[in-house]
Structures are given as structure tokens and as C-alpha cells.
Amino acid sequence: MALKAVLFDLDGVIVDTAKFHYVAWKALADRLNVYFDEEINERLKGVSRMASLDIILERSETDYSDEEKAALATEKNENYVAMVQKLTPAGILPGVVDFLTELQEAGIKSAVCSASKSAGMIIDLLDLNGYFDAVLGGADVSRPKPDPEIFELARDRFGLTSDECLVVEDAYAGVEAAKIAGMRALGIGDEAILTNTDVVYRDMTCFNLEGVKALF
Ligand code: BG6
Ligand code: MG
Prior knowledge:
Elements: E1 5-8, H1 18-31, H2 38-42, H3 49-57, H4 66-84, H5 96-106, E2 109-113, H6 119-125, E3 134-136, H7 149-158, E4 165-169, H8 172-180, E5 184-188, E6 199-201, H9 209-213
Parallel strand pairs: 1-2, 1-4, 2-3, 4-5, 5-6
Helix pairs in contact: 1-4
The chain binds 6-O-phosphono-beta-D-glucopyranose and magnesium ion (MG).
Magnesium ion binds next to loops.
């Protein structure tokens, strides 16, 4: 089956926003006197804002109402959104523009499929709109990764089948979502964390379209 679309996660794949998410969650956890570290933070990658908050509050002795939780998530998000305003195209991770250019020249579709409700804003700040045929974020789906909804939405919008799509992900939950959708997944980052996919590269300078096509 030929490769017809590449569906990219955003945070940790196209731009390193994970550090801003971490700083914003850490500030909230510290204010609430809840222990939070980088290891717990790994579990937040790829999952939605509210699911992230629930993971952080696992260590809290206080029970928060849904209304209070919504306010805590808003507090974190306002801090996060303020931090990401500093992003410019210089923040695009290495190899991303070259790979997107190769896809465009080969007529292969590309989409952003992110859990983040700020996905569109971040793509604007990075000035990457011209490279993507679709930019889908957290506001476009009702079920967060590892549910496959966001990848299936991109696939259906392009009128393709799952085996014509490749997902590029840095999060365990995102790879799970791709697999449930019946798509191949290429991992970016750490082999020790992305144990659920066969192919893991350090970053996008480590592969090109020819190499990716060989996976098909
Ligand atoms: C994902 C990140 O892309 O988006 C998660 O990996 C984040 O860490 C999630 O929680 C939701 O983002 P946002 O911007 O909607 O809070
Ligand atoms: Mg990610």
C-alpha cells in the first residue's frame, strides 16, 4: 500500500512545547503543594489538558470539584499560552521543514493531529500553515489520545484508508492511538519510552521520505 498522508503530532514532534507544558504544570503543582517531577510529566505527553490535571492530582490529598478543576486547568493554560507567545519559526525542530517540503513535492498530504487546543495558534506562530493540508487540534475531537479519533478524522478528511497513513508521534499515548486506528507509527524521541512502536528516531534529521516509504 502506498504512503498517501503523514499525520504529525505537534508537541515534541514539530516544536518543543513540552518544556512549556512542564513549567506551567509544575507552577500549578507547586502552588497546590502537590509533588510533580519530570518522570510523572512523561505520562502527560500526548494526553488532554483535563486528563493531565487528573494525573497530577493523583498525588493530592484534596478533592477538587469539577468546577475547581476547570479553574485549575485554566490557570495552567493561561500560563502556558503566555509562555508560547515567544515562539517563532526558529523554534521549529530540526529536519521538520525539509521533511514537510519533501512531502509537498511528492504530493503526499500532511496534517497536524494534536491533542492541544492551542495547535492552530502554535502553527500560526511557527508560520507553518502553508505546509499542512489540515491542522486538527484538541477542539476538533471529543475523545483524546489514546483514542484514535483525531487520526481517523484526518484520514477521513483526506478520503484515505488507515494503511495509506503514517503517524509521527513522540508520546506513548499517541502511538497507541495510531495503532488502534490501524496506522503505522514512527516514533520521535526515546526508544526506552516509545516501547510500543518498532521505529524510533531521535529527530526528523534522521530520516527522509525515501526511508519512510521503505516502511510501506
Ligand atoms: C499535547 C501535549 O499535545 O496536548 C500534552 O503533549 C497537552 O502535554 C495536550 O496536555 C493538551 O494541550 P492543551 O494546549 O490543549 O492544554
Ligand atoms: Mg507530542
